[in-house]
Amino acid sequence: MAHEHQLNWRDATSKSSSDWKIKITTTTNDRTATYHVHKAVLAHGPRRSEFFAEIFQNDYMANAMNTKSSFQLDSHAARAFPALLDYIYGEDLKIDTNNATALHYLSELLGMNQLKIDSLQFCQTNMSLENLHIYYVLAKLLNDAQVKNLVTVFLKMNMHHVRPDHPIVEESDPQLWIDALAIQGHAETRIEDTRQLSKVIAKICLISMTLDTETFERLVDPLACIDSSVALDLCQLADHLYPKDLDYILSGHLLLMKRCVEALSKDPNFLRELDQHEMHILMQRSPQFLVNLSLETVAGYRD
After folding, report:
1. Which residues fall in a coiled-coil region (predicted)?
2. Would 173 be classed as within a structural domain?
3. Which of 22, 100, 133, 202 could be disulfide-bonded to 171 (CB atoms 3.0-4.6 Å)?
4. Burial, 260: exposed, middle or buried (Cβ in 10 Å; 0-12, 13-18, 19+)?
């Protein structure tokens, strides 16, 4: 539905009766776009912007020498700006996975409360494991805490469905997973069998460029059980990260080794299917690890 005065920012400049300009500069490549708009719509329409309403009330901004607002925006926010203007002018909201976070960011920037509510609601209902990485990446780029929180909560609620090949695994930082794991959820969000999760955590650790001991420990601590396919990878990571002093060996390192030994000993095909690389990793384990693995394996056969 068009605005009641039939004003349209998309009209040719010579016919639009525009009395204000908005200049958008994209921060990544310095590209600019200028939109010829109308103060009556921006500040007084049913979908007005509180930002523009405030600056138009100030005489020093509203005089003839000041007829332009300038913004520097990330490219994603800059691309979403026409959809925001269409919305202000009364058109249906053109929102999708790729611009929802940017529209939410712009609604906060320009003081548009209803758009803020609608865009955040869209983000929440549209999120899936297939597009979660898009919301995460854009929320991080735009520093949008509310969308980032939605991503974290969604991940917590659906962590038992995540596979190592989901895009969110490769696109996210370890901190997202630490935050999601730390959420105290309902009983249905608890994961009793963490073998599938251990494969996800192992991949996150292996591809992280900033992994340190504390981060590693916070990621692997919730893993009550570990899948045998990633046990050696986690052992190797632990060897690389943990200092060689006794305190660390007696705490997180030994607990992880115990879980890895249990995982390997319960896999009847583990030794039979070892490739050369995995055999090399196994032979680098400590004598204690190998003895424990042998004892656990023998005990398993007896059971």
Report:
1. none
2. no
3. 133
4. buried
Q: Which of 84, 110, 126 is the last residue of a domain?
A: 126
Residue 132, domain member (yes or no): no
In a domain, 97, yes or no: yes
| 109 shares a domain with 9 | yes
Statement to judge: residues 107 and 5 lie in one domain: yes
CA angle 169, 182, 159 (to 5 degrees): 40
Nearest to 197 by CA among 251, 160, 166, 240: 160
pLDDT of residue 137: 98
Q: Calculate the dihedral angle through the C-alpha atoms of 286, 289, 292, 298, rounding to the nearest 10 degrees.
A: -90
Query: CA 109, CA 144: separation in Å to the nearest integer?
Result: 11
Distance separating alpha carbons of residues 285 and 240, to the nearest angstrom: 12
Question: pLDDT at position 2, please?
Answer: 45
Q: How many domains does the chain have?
A: 2
Residue located via tokens 């719509």: 41
The last residue of a domain, from among 104, 126, 148 = 126
E-assigned strand segments in 106-230:
none
Query: Domain range holding 52?
Result: 1-126
- For residue 173, CA distances in Å to 138, 167, 275 come to 13, 12, 30
Give the pLDDT confidence score for residue 3 in this predicted structure: 44
Among candidate residues 124, 82, 210, the one with its CA nearest the CA of residue 135? 124
Residue with tokens 């009550």: 224
Q: What's the residue count for the chain?
A: 303
Report the C-alpha gap between 186 and 183 in whole angstroms.
10
Averaged pLDDT in 10-residue chunks for the chain of 303 residues: 65 80 91 92 90 81 72 96 96 97 98 97 98 98 98 95 96 96 71 92 94 92 92 86 58 75 77 65 59 54 49
Residue with tokens 């138009």: 56
Q: Considering the domain boundaries, does residue 102 fall inside one?
A: yes
Nearest to 71 by CA among 54, 44, 42, 51: 51
What local confidence, expressed as pLDDT, does residue 263 receive? 84
